Amino acid sequence: MDINDFRDTQPELxxxxxxxxxxxxxxxxxNRSGVATRQFTVDMVGRLEGDTLVLEEDFEYADGETDRRVxxxxxxxEHRYVGTxxxxxxxxxxxxxxxxxxxxxxxxxxxxxxxxxxxxxxWMYRQEDDVVINRATITKWGFEVARVTxxxxxxxx
Length: 157
Description:
Low-confidence stretches: none
Shape: globular
CATH topology: Lipocalin
Number of strands: 10
Structural class: mainly beta
Strand order of the largest sheet: 1-2-3-4-5-6-7-8-9-10
Number of helices: 1
Helix content: under 10%
Order of helices and strands: HEEEEEEEEEE
CATH superfamily: Calycin beta-barrel core domain
Largest sheet: 10 strands, antiparallel, barrel
Strand content: over 45%
């Protein structure tokens, strides 16, 4: 897909605007065969600090495991974003057009007692009623190993 294909679509997804405040998300992880392997919820709080969105994400998995990620996302130009988080290698880079946002990054992903360096290719799509749907493909050495689907909703919606 090309992010420019979404330039005239609505409602517009402005990452700094949408992810401010309290949000809740529900997600599922599928292995490369399409089998659902994990479910989770995420409670998030986002706030602007100058020109940087600080997004605190608290994950709770169906098996009881918890995790936390804190993103720091700054706008770089009219449509481009750069983000960092504790488990992200280097920087996440993304671009928004219309209702879509696309970004890519590498993560040291903990699975059981092991850690794997994987690449995420995320596509987010804003829907009506302050809902955003995120589809992420996870690859290792260029091969797809999993897909993640997450639905975000603002708490005050």
